[in-house]
C-alpha cells in the first residue's frame, strides 16, 4: 500500500521545539515522528511508530535466532514480588506506585526480574527444562528525576529485556556469549556505531557485565577506549595501572613544615617549589574524607587517598563501594571529629583515629608524598607509603584522564561520550534464591539455577539512530528501519509528471518496496525537497525538471544524486534497497 | 522456524485454576496461553502472545484497508486533558490515578478521546486535511470492580480504538459505515459468531450507535434478536411497542377498595380474582419510586409506571435517564415523604405531590389499571390513563421478555447473552468542542469537526474465540490466529518415526507452514494427544502405529481424522491451511 503525503497524518515543523536540546529530539519532533504528551512521555505518530516497530522486529529476529522465547508481562504489577526482593523500597522515587480501588499497592514495572523468576519457578521443575531464555519487548515505566532529550530518556519507554536460566555457571557463560553475539548482530544490522564496554556489575551482583554504548557526544555516559582498540570500559569499570613499588631503604625521613595558606593542592605545590623541591601536583597526596553507609548500618568515615593531580570521581567511588552509599563528609562531621583538620588531613591522623583508609592503586609501598600533617598550617614532605603510613586497601576512585595508560598495556586511554543502548550481565542467583527456585538436577538433588540479565533500550535506539545519522537538513534512516524505503517526489507541475509519479509509486509498491509518495498538488518543489530531507527516507526518486526528457533523479539521503532514465528507476531502487 | 515442545516455555495443567468459572478462562490457563499476575492482570505466555499478535494483525489490516492510520499514545497520561472533559472525575473508581515524583496527577488511560482530539487540533487546521481516521492498538487500564473471567474482563487489556474526524455529518455517516464494514470483515475473518445490536449512545452523546456482541452464554450483556433475524439490539436499546389507545368514554368509574394484605402484585391479583374480576398481573400498574440525580443537581424523586407483570430493569432505566444517575428510593425517602405509602403508591398521589411520573409505553390513554390508592390497605380499580391520571412522559424501563413483539413488526424477540467485542458510534462534537478544535472550511469559516468513535476489545477477542470454539478436550483456534497452523505429533517410539517427524516438520516449515512439533522423547502418545487437543491447533499430523506402513493421521481439531500416505502430508496440510 502506498502512503501519500496528501493524506498522511503529519505536520512537519520548521522550528525546533522549545524544550529540545539534542538533535534527535529536535528532529524527531520536527519531522512528526513523536509528540510530547507529558514530561518524558511521548506519543508515536504514524512515521515514528513504523520505525519503532521495525526496530522491535530486528531485535525480535535476533533474539529468536539464539533460541529466545517471547512472552509479555503486564506493566501494572502487584507489590508483593517486589517487596520480596526489597525493590519496592530500593527503587525509591524512580518507581511509579499506585493503589487500586481496593487499596492494594501496585506499581508500573520498571524491570521484570521478579516476574520472570516467579514464572520459571511456577512452570519448571527439572534440569531437563533448562537452559531457557525468555524475553519480552515491553513498555516500561521509570519516574526519572530529569526526563530529557525526548525519547532518549523517557519515563514511559519500550525495552527488550531477557533472562537466561541455567543449571550451571558454564551454561550461564554460554547464554551470556549468545546474547553478546545477538546484541552485536542487532546493533550491526541497525548500523549503530557502538563500543562494548566492560562495566561494573553494581548492586545487581554477579560477575561478567558489559554495556553497549552508542558513541555520541550527547551521551550521558563517559567511557574509555584504548588507543589500540582492544579495550573499552565505562569509567566506573576502568582498572588503574598500579604504581611501581620502590625500595623504602635509603629514602630520607619525613619532615614536617609550617605551610601557611597552603590549603589547596595548587598552593601546596607553590609552597614546595618555593622550598626548592622539584615537584608537581602528582607528588602530593590528597586525603578525601567521605561517609559510607552500608545497607542497614550507620554511616562510617572513610579516607580516600589519591594523587594530588587527580580529583575523586564520585561515580567511580560510588561504583567501587556499592551496595553501600557514599557522600562527602560535611562540616558537621569535621566538627564532630576534631582530628580532621580541613585542608591538612593526612593518612597518619586518619589511621591513628581508627578511620579506614583506602588508596588509589598508584599509592604503592615506597612511594613518597607531600601531604597533610593533621594540624593547622602543617604539611609533611617525604611521607613514604609502607613506612610512615599503611592503607587498609586500594580503591578505584580517581578520575580517569585522556592519555592514562590502558590497564593491560593496550596503549593509552581516550575518553568518549556514549548512550547506553544495551547491557548484558551475569546476574547469578540473587533472584532465584529470593524466590526459592529449586530445580531437580541430574542426580536428583535440588539446585538453584543461575541467571543472566540482558536489556536493550528499544525506543531509545530510535533516538540514537537519529542522533548518529542526521545532518543539518534532517534525519537519515538506515534502510532496515526507515518508515519507508523510498520517497517519491513529484516536483514538476505537469499533469504528466503527477501521472508518472503515480505509476512509478505503483510499480515500486508492486515490487515490494515501501513507498512514501509526495503527491501534494499545491506544494512547491522546494518545500517537498525540504520535507524529504527532514523525514529522512534513505532514497528519494524525484520527478523534476528533466522529467520531460525521461530522466528522474535518484537521491541517496546524505549521499549522491544520480540522474537515470525513468524506466530504470524501479530496478535501481530495488538494487539500492537490497544493499 | 519450528517450535519444539521439548523446549517451548509451556506447562499444561490437568486441573482447572481455582478462580476460573468460564471455559475460556479455564482453558487458556490450563493450555499455558495466559497466567494471572494480579486480579484482572495477566501475563501472555509464548502461545498466547502469538495468538494475540495475530488477532492484532487482522484488526490492523482491516483498519488500514479503510484508510485508518495507526499511531500509538502513551498509557501514562497527564491529568489536564481529562480534567478539561471532566472525565478525571466522571470515571470515578474505574480510573487508575497516580502521582509522579513532582506530585503531578497522572492516570493510566482507560480510553483516549482527549489525546486523539488534542493531537488532531495541533496538527490540522484546514478542511483539506479531512476526513481523517486514526487508530491505535494499545494497552488500556480500567480498575474494574469485579475483574472476572480471565482476559474477558481485565484491568489491563489490549484495545483497538479509532476515531474519525469529518467536516460534515454526511462525512461522519460514511466513516461510520466504513468502520461497520471493517468490523464485519474482522469478525468474519476471525470466525466469531456475533450480532450487530442497536445500542443506546449513552453518556457519550451522539446518534448512531451499534454494538458487536459475540454470542455466548457466559456473556455479561443481554441482547434481543427478532425471530425474523432483521433486528438485534441490546436490551437498553430495545424500543417497546406502544399499547393501543382506547376510548375513555363509556368506561366505568374508578372505585377504591379496602385490600388488606395485598401489598404485592401477586396478592393484589388474588384479591381482585376473589372479587370476581377477570384480571392478571398485566392489568395492574406498578408504581416504582426512584431517585434521579442529574449532573451537579440534587436528587429528585421520580415515579416509574410499568404493567404489574413486568419488573423495572434498572439497566434499561439507567440507560434511559443518562447522564443522570438513578437509584431506588430508600426507607428514608419514604419517611421524608409521608404521601408515599409503601405497597399502595399510585399515580394520583405522585402527581398530587409534584413528583414527576414517567410511564411504560403500554400505559397509553384509555387503558384501565388496578393500582395503589395512596393510603394503607387501599387500592383502586378501573383507574384510566388520560382520565384519572396523567403522565409526564414515557420511558423505556420495563424488563424485556422472550416473546415480546419486535419493535417494527419483525416477529417476536428472543433473548440471548453476548460479550461486547466492538462498539461503533457517532460521537459528534462533544470532544472537538471541549478542545475548541476550529477548522477552516471551504468558505474560509471556522467549523468544528464531528467525530466517530470505534473500539474493539482485542485481548478479549482471544477469550471470545476460546469461549465459542472449545470442546471438553480443549481449545480449537481458527487457522488465521492459531499460534501454529499444524501440530506434528510423533506417537511412535521407533527412532525412524522421530526422524520422519523431524523431516516432516522441516518440510512443512519450508512450505511456509507454522509448525509446532511434539518431539518429546519420553512422553506417552496419550499425553501428547491430550496436549494437542488442549492446545488446539487447527490441524495435527500424527506419526503413530500405522507409520510403519507409510501412513500418517491428519486430524482436524474438532473434526474428522484422515489416514493419508506420509508423503502426501505436506500437500494436504497446505491445502487445509489455505482453506
From TrEMBL, chains A, B:
Species lineage: Bacteria, Bacillati, Actinomycetota, Actinomycetes, Mycobacteriales
Family matches, as CDD domains: ProRS_anticodon_short, ProRS_core_prok
Domain Aminoacyl-transfer RNA synthetases class-II family profile: 35-478
Gene that encodes the chain: proS
PANTHER family: MITOCHONDRIAL RIBOSOME PROTEIN L39/PROLYL-TRNA LIGASE FAMILY MEMBER, PROLINE--TRNA LIGASE
Keyword terms of this UniProt record: Aminoacyl-tRNA synthetase, ATP-binding, Cytoplasm, Ligase, Nucleotide-binding, Protein biosynthesis
Classification via InterPro entries: aa-tRNA-synt_IIb, aa-tRNA-synth_II, aa-tRNA-synth_II/BPL/LPL, Anticodon-bd, Anticodon-bd_dom_sf, Pro-tRNA-ligase_IIa, Pro-tRNA-synth_IIa_bac-type, Pro-tRNA-Synthase_IIa_type1
Enzyme Commission number, as recorded: 6.1.1.15
Family: Belongs to the class-II aminoacyl-tRNA synthetase family. ProS type 1 subfamily.
Domain of life: Bacteria
A GO-annotated cellular component: cytosol
Comment block on domains: Consists of three domains: the N-terminal catalytic domain, the editing domain and the C-terminal anticodon-binding domain.
Annotated localization: Cytoplasm
Name this protein carries in UniProt: Proline--tRNA ligase
GO molecular function terms listed in the Swiss-Prot or TrEMBL record: aminoacyl-tRNA deacylase activity; ATP binding; proline-tRNA ligase activity
Amino acid at each position: 500500500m502506498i502512503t501519500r503525503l496528501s493524506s498522511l497524518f503529519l505536520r512537519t515543523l520548521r522550528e525546533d521545539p522549545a524544550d529540545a536540546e539534542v538533535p534527535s529530539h529536535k528532529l524527531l519532533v520536527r519531522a512528526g515522528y513523536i509528540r510530547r504528551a507529558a514530561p518524558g512521555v511521548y506519543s508515536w505518530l504514524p512515521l515514528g511508530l513504523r520505525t519503532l516497530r521495525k526496530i522491535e522486529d530486528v531485535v525480535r529476529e535476533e533474539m529468536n535466532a539464539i533460541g529466545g522465547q517471547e512472552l509479555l508481562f503486564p506493566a501494572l504489577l502487584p507489590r508483593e514480588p517486589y517487596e520480596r526482593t526489597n525493590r519496592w523500597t530500593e527503587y525509591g522515587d524512580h518507581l511509579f506506585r499506585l493503589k487500586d480501588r481496593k487499596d492494594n499497592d501496585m506499581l508500573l514495572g520498571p524491570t521484570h526480574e521478579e516476574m520472570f523468576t516467579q514464572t520459571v519457578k511456577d512452570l519448571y521443575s527439572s534440569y531437563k527444562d533448562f537452559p531457557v531464555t525468555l524475553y519480552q519487548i515491553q513498555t516500561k515505566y521509570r519516574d526519572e528525576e530529569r526526563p530529557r532529550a525526548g525519547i532518549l530518556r523517557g519515563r514511559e519507554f519500550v525495552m527488550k529485556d531477557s533472562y537466561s536460566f541455567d543449571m550451571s555457571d558454564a551454561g550461564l557463560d554460554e547464554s551470556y556469549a549468545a546474547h553478546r553475539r545477538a546484541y552485536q548482530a542487532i546493533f550491526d544490522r541497525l548500523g549503530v556505531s557502538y563500543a562494548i564496554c566492560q562495566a561494573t556489575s553494581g548492586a545487581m551482583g554477579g560477575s561478567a557485565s558489559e554495556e553497549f554504548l552508542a558513541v555520541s557526544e550527547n551521551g550521558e555516559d563517559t567511557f574509555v577506549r584504548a588507543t589500540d582498540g582492544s579495550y573499552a570500559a565505562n569509567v566506573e569499570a576502568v582498572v588503574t595501572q598500579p604504581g611501581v613499588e620502590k625500595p623504602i631503604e635509603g629514602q630520607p625521613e619525613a619532615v614536617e613544615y609550617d605551610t601557611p595558606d597552603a590549603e589547596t593542592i595548587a598552593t601546596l605545590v607553590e609552597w614546595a617549589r618555593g622550598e626548592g623541591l622539584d615537584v608537581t601536583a602528582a607528588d602530593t597526596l590528597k586525603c578525601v574524607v567521605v561517609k559510607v553507609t552500608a545497607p542497614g548500618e550507620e554511616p562510617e568515615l572513610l579516607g580516600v587517598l589519591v594523587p594530588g593531580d587527580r580529583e575523586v570521581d564520585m561515580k567511580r567511588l560510588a561504583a567501587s563501594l556499592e551496595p553501600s552509599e557514599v557522600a562527602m563528609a560535611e562540616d558537621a562531621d569535621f566538627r564532630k571529629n576534631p582530628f580532621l583538620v580541613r585542608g591538612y588531613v593526612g593518612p597518619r591522623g586518619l589511621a591513628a583515629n581508627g578511620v579506614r583508609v583506602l588508596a588509589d592503586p598508584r599509592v604503592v609501598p615506597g612511594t613518597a608524598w607531600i601531604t597533610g600533617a593533621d594540624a593547622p598550617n602543617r604539611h609533611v614532605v617525604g611521607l613514604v607509603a609502607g613506612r610512615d603510613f599503611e592503607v587498609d586497601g586500594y580503591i578505584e576512585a580517581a578520575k580517569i584522564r585522556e592519555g592514562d595508560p590502558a590497564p593491560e598495556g593496550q596503549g593509552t586511554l581516550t575518553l568518549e561520550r556514549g548512550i547506553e543502548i544495551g547491557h548484558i550481565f551475569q546476574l547469578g542467583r540473587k533472584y532465584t534464591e529470593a524466590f526459592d527456585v529449586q530445580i531437580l538436577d541430574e542426580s536428583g538433588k535440588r539446585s538453584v539455577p543461575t541467571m543472566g540479565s540482558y536489556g536493550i533500550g528499544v525506543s531509545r535506539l530510535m533516538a540514537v539512530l537519529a542522533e548518529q545519522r542526521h545532518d543539518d537538513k534532517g534525519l537519515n534512516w538506515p534502510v532496515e528501519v526507515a518508515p519507508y524505503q523510498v520517497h517519491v517526489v513529484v516536483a514538476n507541475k505537469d499533469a504528466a509528471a503527477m501521472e508518472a509519479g503515480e505509476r512509478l509509486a505503483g510499480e515500486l509498491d508492486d515490487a515490494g518496496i515501501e513507498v512514501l509518495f509526495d503527491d501534494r498538488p499545491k506544494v512547491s518543489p522546494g518545500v517537498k525537497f525540504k520535507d524529504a530531507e527532514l523525514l529522512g527516507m534513505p532514497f528519494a526518486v524525484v520527478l523534476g525538471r528533466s522529467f520531460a526528457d525521461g530522466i528522474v533523479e535518484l537521491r541517496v539521503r546524505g549521499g549522491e544524486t544520480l540522474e537515470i532514465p525513468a524506466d530504470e528507476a524501479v530496478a535501481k531502487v530495488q538494487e539500492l534497497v537490497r544493499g
